[in-house]
Amino acid sequence: MLRGTYVTTQDLVRLRGRTQGLILPVSPAVYRTGGFRSKILGRGMEYEKSRKYEAGDDVRMIDWRVTARTGTAHTKVFQEDRQKAVYLIVDLTSTMRFGTQVAFKSVVAAEAAALLAWASHSQGDLISIVGITDQGVRHGKLASSSESLMKQLNMLASLSQTLPAHTESPLSFAEALSVVVRKVRTGDLAVIFSDLANLTDISSKALEYLSRRQSLIVCWVQDPIEQKSLPVGHYPVTDGFQYTTLHLSSAGRRKKLQSLLDQRNQAIHDTLKRFGSTNVQMKCGDEVVKVLHRTFHRSANPNGRNGLSPPVGFSRSSARASSTTRG
Q1: Region at 26 (left for phi over 0; alpha for psi -120 to 50; beta for the rest)
Q2: What's the predicted TM-score (pTM) here?
Q3: Of the ranges 30-44, 145-159, 200-214, which is most confident?
Q4: Which of 5, 33, 177, 236 has its CA 20 to 30 A from that of 223?
Q5: Please, what are the domains in the chain?
Q6: What is d(CA 46, CA 212) in angstroms, rounded to the nearest whole number?
Q7: pLDDT digits (tens, 9 = 90+) for 78-132
Q8: Cα dist from 100 to 87, 108, 235, 236, whole Å
């Protein structure tokens, strides 16, 4: 695992050797008029499932067996052999520049993003790393070459080493995310690495947009004390500009703090579940590569396809459970 308060390009390059077996999911392709924009790499199309028919779906792809059985129009969904676009959106704002064990949350996020970037590169995917800081948003050009990936990893390392600006109105992750989603198109894969500390109506709308039009994975990064409050004591804290002391001198104060943490974490969990996103939870001090391998790993599959282990936390919400698999 990476340690400290920032990462270097060399740190991120060395992670390439730790991606063996990591594989990101392929988004199911649904036949729509003019719906395909990406370069087709092969002609193979494999049936994935059937789901309820939506306006704009190709009527030629209606699954008549499921339609007859359920009484509701269903359309076939296929796995498409194609070069997919992967957007790795990394939160490097002020709240991520924090950690009590081993590394800052920003370091954990950068490590996870680099690991999935190398995994996507080995699959031949188009990759764009998006770094969000208090000062603004930096986009890596969507490309699949090694040269492009190196430039993007260098950008990510550089952003992690930039000190947060002391400004009265820093750019929030929620505001930046609402801008970023406009670049992500239908059928792409978006992976967000963030502590979701500022989950507001703005970011909720952005997450909803992504979950409806693209495959969405959220890597929720936390510090251990954001899950369970510290023991009784006095703790010095700083934002890099100001210093103060966190007083946890009584059981009552700790209990109140724990209640606030539980409410916040439950609200985030419920929001992600409502949108049906894959949720990967990781915290400072975790062996990040092991966490990712528990969720995304290449496994033997009798159909010859790459399987995925069940996601950590939860998978698709019950709102999407209406999709019916053809018998």
Answers
A1: beta
A2: 0.74
A3: 145-159
A4: 177
A5: 9-24+84-320 (3.40.50.410), 28-82 (no CATH)
A6: 22
A7: 755 456 899 999 999 988 999 888 999 999 999 999 999 999 999 889 999 999 9
A8: 29, 12, 11, 12
